[in-house]
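S1.2 Input.
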Amino acid sequence: MSNKFIVDANVFLQGKNFHYHFDFCEGFWDWIHAGYNQGLIFSIAKVRAELVAGVKGDKARAWAEAMPKDFFLDDTGDAKVMAAYAQAMTWANASTHYTANAKKVFAESKRADAFLLAYAKAHGHVIVTQEKSNPEAKRSIPIPDAASQLGGIKPTVTIYELLKLHAKPTFVFKP
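S1.3 Output.
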C-alpha cells in the first residue's frame, strides 16, 4: 500500500505565492485534489485554520474553504493524535537544545506543526513540508528534526519529492 501524505501550510502558502501561483499553475491545485481523490494526499484541520485565517479574497483561503471537509483530517478530535501531541509537547519541553521561545512557539495551539507531527505519529502518514532539517537550530523547531527525534514518524518529504512520486510532467496525478 502506498503512503498517505499530510501537507504542511507552507507548501500551500509558498505555492500560491511563488511556484504554483493560481494565475498560471492551476494544475498544481488540481493535482492536490486528484491526490485527495486517490486517498493519498490530505492535510489537517489546523492547517486549514491557518489558511482560512488569511485575508478575505486570498486565493489560498478560498481554495481551502472550497476543498472537501475531509481533505483536512480531524486532529484535535482524534484521541490517538492528542496522545501523540502530548508526547510531542513532553519531548519539546524536555529538550535542552531549543530556546524557551522556540518551545513556546511550537506549543501554540493555533500552529499546525506539532499537530502535523502528532497526526503522522498516530496514523503513519508522511509529512510534506518545505522546512529543511537544521539540527543546529535552537530558535525554532524544524518539523524534519522533530520528526526524527520523536520516533515513530516516517521521514518528511518536500513537495518536490512528492511530485516525483505521484505527478506526470503535466501535473496529472499518477497513482
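S1.4 Remarks. Strands lie at 5-7, 41-44, 72-73, 126-128.
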